[in-house]
Structure formats: C-alpha cells, structure tokens
Design brief:
110 residues; four-stranded antiparallel sheet
C-alpha cells in the first residue's frame, strides 16, 4: 500500500524556520501535482503549496515569500521549507499526492 510519511515538524519560536519532508513509498516522478496542506486548530484544511512534475509552484497568499516547496524525484520526496514563521502558521501539515499523509504538527509559539 502506498504511504506518505511526513517529518520535520515541532515547536519553533516566531521568526524561526522549519523544513518539512514527505517521503513516498512509491515513485513520485509520474505524479503531476504534489501538495502541502495544513489544518489550523479549529479550522478547515487549506492548501499551502503545490508543485508540478515540471517544477511549477503555487502558494497560498499567506505563505508567499516565506515558504518554498520542492521535490526530489530521485528520493521520492517533497519538501516544504518554512521561514519567518508566525503563530498563525500553527497547524497540522499534510502531504498530498492523491492520497494523504498522516500529518505532522507545527507549533509556532514563544
């Protein structure tokens, strides 16, 4: 069964950085779009960033200029580098490649 496993979350102070990783148990090179979503406490899940197989990216307005999505087809992984983190970035972050990962918590707090 295909699995996506996120890692790299945790507690960080405002202004800090984290890099999330999503490892796939199958080849990701044929997957046209890979995405990161997040679900803040008490809110609905929302799209954070997407990357196509050709490397084109798309970001939510709230993270533009601070977050960077990338993919490494050789490692079957997608990443989300998050800089200048704000308390409102606190959420469970999910990887999506047609299926969902289990999610990983990111907490931005002093």
């Amino acid at each position: 069964q295909v699995q996506l496993v996120e890692s790299g979350g945790g507690l960080v102070q405002p202004g800090g950085s984290l890099k999330l990783s999503c490892a796939s148990s199958r080849r990701i090179s044929p997957i046209v779009i890979m995405s990161w979503y997040r679900q803040p406490p008490g809110k609905q899940r929302e799209l954070v960033a997407q990357i196509t197989s050709g490397g084109s990216t798309n970001y939510a307005d709230s993270v533009k200029g601070r977050f960077t999505i990338s993919r490494d087809n050789a490692k079957n992984a997608v990443y989300l580098e998050m800089n200048s983190l704000k308390p409102e970035d606190t959420a469970v972050y999910y990887c999506n490649a047609g299926i969902w990962g289990q999610g990983i918590e990111v907490t931005v707090s002093s």
